[in-house]
Amino acid sequence: MNIEMIEAAAARLAGHARRTPLLSSPFLDEIAGRRVLVKPECLQLTGSFKFRGAWSAISALDPAVRARGVIAFSSGNHAQGVALAAKMHGAPSVIIMPSDAPQLKLANTRAFGAEVVTYDRANEDRDEIGARLSAERGLTLIKPFDEPQVIAGQGTAGLEIAEDLLEMGITEAEVLVCCGGGGLTSGVALACADRAPGLRVRPVEPEGFDDVTRSLAAGEILRNASMSGGICDAIVTPQPGNLTFPIMSEHCGPGLVVSDEEALQAMAQAFLRLKVVAEPGGAVALAAALTRTDSLQGDTVVAMISGGNVDPAMFARALATL
Amino acid sequence: MNIEMIEAAAARLAGHARRTPLLSSPFLDEIAGRRVLVKPECLQLTGSFKFRGAWSAISALDPAVRARGVIAFSSGNHAQGVALAAKMHGAPSVIIMPSDAPQLKLANTRAFGAEVVTYDRANEDRDEIGARLSAERGLTLIKPFDEPQVIAGQGTAGLEIAEDLLEMGITEAEVLVCCGGGGLTSGVALACADRAPGLRVRPVEPEGFDDVTRSLAAGEILRNASMSGGICDAIVTPQPGNLTFPIMSEHCGPGLVVSDEEALQAMAQAFLRLKVVAEPGGAVALAAALTRTDSLQGDTVVAMISGGNVDPAMFARALATL
């Protein structure tokens, strides 16, 4: 992984992915006691940053390979990103999802152009199904985070942050990133390290699923004890990636951890003050910016909202915190 | 009014107002049967397009006049736009609001830096209070729409729409604009007429408050029968402006009218598919784009979301339509 890969991904994304702005509100500055700038990747195509990595990976494929199609395992934002990026390339996509995934996610992924293959979690092995389909059709697997071209694609958001901050004359800030497997965090960290080394990128995770924070503190990859039970499902992964962890170790500051309740409150602030829709996992960085004020340094904090794919009932829970 | 005034306003707004993007979703295209592009002015500073006009008017004042301060009559988006634009210029602002205005609006307007002067609707005359304060302090009145520099400021959104469409190779489209007094609609129409005459700007209003639509059809200014009763309060005014009506007559296509229920449904689609927060009045143009498909021409429709200042209870009503 290097900055040239991120720059090349940015060139491939230009005119296809959305360049998201930086948002702000004096009310959020007041809460945080410093300037808060928010990068709303919920406004990205498919409602999350995942489109960047999917487009980067699919656009980097040899055209003949791409024409055979791509495959991904996901029931969430990665699935939608891969489905739409493949469709926009005119390439078929297969998404393997558990048969008990929410109907809305199944329907959305199909609507973005994917063939959805479901499996029975109790009796079938998704890897076996994926391997069989890939062999039969010559499909290329698009991994969700531990893949260089995916990391490069997510890093393009970091280039935009650095560019916008430098244009505002800001050279030092903490940059808080919602973190699951670390694809977005490591990509943004690489981009910032090159473009604006005074920016410190820090992963933010939900309580109980703080594998990256603990791994960074320990200096080795640690796993989450559980994969279920919280509301920040979009950013829950078993452990940091083999590619992403060394990058985060070299470039990132200490992780931050927030509660589900704090994530819901941050969703409510994003609604009230920024007029954007955040999902729980997508709001953890803003939650940290607003509540972990003693753990942050400097006059400016940047918080990424990584996604906005939330159902109305969960959003109503967030509004009820107001 | 002319295009040079809008261009000059754009130069004054540069680096101060937010340049909002165009959003889209294949799901909205599917509903509308054509390409739908959304200009989310809810992401503008203070949560509505009103900041543009306020900044334009205040920045155009002679510095010595501006230093004495500005005054506005508003309990809504115009108040917040004037308050923040004045504060950013280091100028005092006075906002006259009824004493029974919602606490949240009073608090927000104060938080944006204004001195809020309340009056008793039953026993006091707001114009008399305003005139007295203006005379005492030398304040300049910033009118909400029937003022050339305000229209010029709103028109900067039209310059951005035209520029973005031309960059996408789109030269013909209907441009639907949420319409109250016509400041935004007339400004956008002037900008589009100059930059991309193949764009047809059309005002969209809520049922029962369709004074502009009826006035355009009649060729003369007609009034609304009532000023109360709907949920689209942000865009309800007694009648089209004396400056805005001739501009709309010359440059705009026929108006469109939607129901409150359709506005709520459009808010829900903006939540679900675009991840932005629209207020009822701010969603009427999107509602028309999604439902008045037989009344629209061409392959592309642009819908402005004019604002996102909605309370959680009303937003919950919108989500309940899903």
Short description:
Chain A is α/β, with parallel strands linked by helices and 322 residues long. Helix content of chain A is 46%, strand content 14%.
What can you tell me about this protein's structure?
Two copies of one chain form a homodimer. Chain A has two domains: 3-49 and 147-319, Rossmann fold (3-Layer(aba) Sandwich); 51-141, Rossmann fold (3-Layer(aba) Sandwich), CATH 3.40.50.1100. The model of chain A has no long low-confidence stretch (mean pLDDT 95). In chain A, helix 6 (103-111) links the parallel strand 3 (93-98) and strand 4. In chain A, helix 3 packs across helix 8 (148-167) and helix 12 crosses helix 14. In chain A, 46% of the residues lie in helices and 14% in strands. In chain A, the strands form two sheets. In chain A, strands 1-9-6-7-8 form a five-stranded parallel sheet, sandwiched between helices. In chain A, strands 4-3-2-5 form a four-stranded parallel sheet, with helices on both faces. The first copy, chain A, has 322 residues and is an alpha/beta fold. The A-B interface holds A 18-21, 23, 26-27, 30, 40, 42-43, 47, 84, 111-112, 268, 271-272, 274-277, 308, 312, 315-316, 319-320, 322 and B 18-21, 23, 26-27, 30, 40, 42-43, 47, 84, 111-112, 268, 271-272, 274-277, 308, 312, 315-316, 319-320, 322. Chains A, B: Its cofactor is pyridoxal 5'-phosphate; Ca(2+); Mn(2+); Mg(2+). Chains A, B: It comes from Pseudooceanicola marinus.
